[in-house]
Amino acid sequence: MRKFSINCYPYFSVILSSVWILLIMTAYFYQFKGLFEVVLKLFINY
C-alpha cells in the first residue's frame, strides 16, 4: 500500500499543479481580457 501511494503521489501532484496553473491562467485571462486584446491588436498592427 505504501509503495503504491508513493508511486502514485508524483502523478497526483503533477495533475494538481497543472489544474492549478490552468485555473490561474483562466482567471488572469478573464481579468485582463481587455489588456490581452490590446496586446494582440498591437502585435497584429506590427
Low-confidence stretches: none
Q: Specify the helix fraction band.
A: over 70%
Structural Rg: 18 Å
Oligomer: single chain
Number of strands: 0
Number of helices: 2
Sheet-strand content, in percent, reads under 5%
How far apart are the first and last residues' alpha carbons, in Å?
A: 58 Å
**SSE topology string:** HH
What is the SS-derived class? mainly alpha
Mean pLDDT: 79
Number of domains: 1
Keywords: Membrane, Transmembrane, Transmembrane helix
Concise summary:
It is elongated, with a radius of gyration of 18 Å.
Features:
mainly alpha; 93% helix; 46 residues
Descriptive account of the structure:
Keywords: Membrane, Transmembrane, Transmembrane helix. This protein has 2 helices and no strands. The chain has one domain. 93% of the residues lie in helices and 0% in strands. It is mainly α.
